[in-house]
Each structure stands twice: as C-alpha cells, then as structure tokens.
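[step 3/7] fold_predict: job queued, chain A
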Amino acid sequence: MGQLICDLKDKDFMAIIGSKNGDKSTLMKVIRGLIKTFSSTVKLLGEVPRT
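[step 4/7] structure written:
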C-alpha cells in the first residue's frame, strides 16, 4: 500500500475507490485499528485508533 495523506474538515466527504484487489478493505481495517501498521502512523480525529 502506498502513502496516503488526507486532512478532512468538518462536513467534508471522502470516497475510497479502486480496483477489485486495490487494498480498499485493508485501508479501512488500518483506519479502524483492526490491523496494526509497522512503518506508518494512522490518526483518526487526531488520535491513533486502538488495536
């Protein structure tokens, strides 16, 4: 998975689109804290999701 930098403001909307095997589900699991990352930092609402 490549680098993703996203800074959404109040009432912003983001869609995740891609090919069938494009890591969309993996990205969502990382954001939700279901998969621990080793070489990156994920913050949701300014905090690292709990694993």
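[step 5/7] annotate
The chain has one domain: 1-51.
Residues 1-51 form one domain.
exit 0
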